[in-house]
Amino acid sequence: MAIVCVGSIALDTVKTPFGKVREKLGGSATYFSVAASFFAPVSVVAVIGSDLKDAKLAPLKARGIDLRGIERRKGKTFRWSGEYSYDLNVRETIETHLNVFEEFDPVIREELRGFPFVFLGNIDPDLQHRILDQMISPRLVVTDTMNYWISGKRDSLIKLLSRVDILVINDAEARELSGEYNLLASARWIIDRGPQTVIIKKGEHGALMFRGRSFFSAPGFPLDAVFDPTGAGDSFAGGFVGYLAKTEDLSEDNLRRAVIYGSTLASFTVEEFGVDKLLELATDDIEARVRNFRELTHFDL
Ligand code: AMP
Predict the structure, then answer these.
(1) Mutate to test the pocket of ligand 1, among 56, 146, 149, 156 (most ligand atoms within 8 A of CB)
(2) Residue nearest to atom 7 of ligand 1 (CA)
(3) What does the angle CA 228 – CA 234 – CA 239 come to, to the nearest 5 degrees?
């Protein structure tokens, strides 16, 4: 089943203890769409400026991602820069320049409005609302957000929660949004405001899925080297939603499998800057790591 993904397309400048890149293709829609494209057809809705060369998006096109919903506007592409210390779970945003995003008012083309799977990537919650206004009874709405919007557009974000099925968020953001330090209490606070399911990502420590009274914990995949954590969250969401769209099964058991696929895609992303690692993957690489994941948590009683 097909997925509509709305989010940022960015030029990212990132510094980690292991290197630095300038104006690398990033953004929530980029990471999400590449990860999800291993499982299901993806159409991207986003905005870029006149400064982003078509060649930068060529690798996405080559993966069969539908880019017709990307609007090119006069002005500069969204830019973000961030820096990590040796504790790669902690990131400092240095600069956020919304640029063409400030005036973006997405119109979803007719053909996409009935798509069953909707991913609202990390963008202004007002835009996320306007996307949902245009969709016709989607089967599953998954959304992500970030500290920038939690502090800047809190009311709009809280209203959005009543319109989504699954919120994917990291641990620090869940605490900031809910005002609860304890993650279980944070998840309950969020569930009380709408989503049936909340997934809290904990960087290299894995992810927790909360649904009603049940929860599921996936470890972080142990990697020899983590190079750049940027985009791990969006790649997680891409693997997660992509797997659900492919299997068309929203049962608890399948959501658990989807968390493992999401974690797998995220684990590949962090091995290189940008989407470079994802772009060189084959489906067999993904399946092999999913099997390794299963072994990692298997034990007999
Ligand atoms: P993640 O590491 O998965 O949380 O996502 C990192 C991506 O989010 C980067 O590629 C950034 O370009 C993008 N990003 C950072 N800040 C924002 C923002 N305020 N709105 C939309 N996208 C953002």
Answers:
(1) 146
(2) 27
(3) 110
